[in-house]
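anyone seen this seq b4? input:
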Amino acid sequence: MSIEHIKAMLRISCNFNTSSISHSFTISKEETLVVKCIKSTFILEVSSTEHQHVEYYTSIDQAAEALYKKIHAQKTH
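predicted toks r here
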């Protein structure tokens, strides 16, 4: 998945931030990243099912870059 595709998905979430839209990215058998825009804000929340870790981003570009790295890091192992 390209970084531009990820950015487009995140823009959709933020443009419709009065509803609950989430995107899931399967990283491995154990890990899925779930991304949503917190309602009525432009803050993106990225949570990991494996690590129970949550990160917040106020920039679509930063969130997309972080997701892109995590998605493609597994492919190099």
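The beta strands are 22-26, 32-37, 44-48, 54-57. The chain has a mean pLDDT of 90. kinda curious what u guys think
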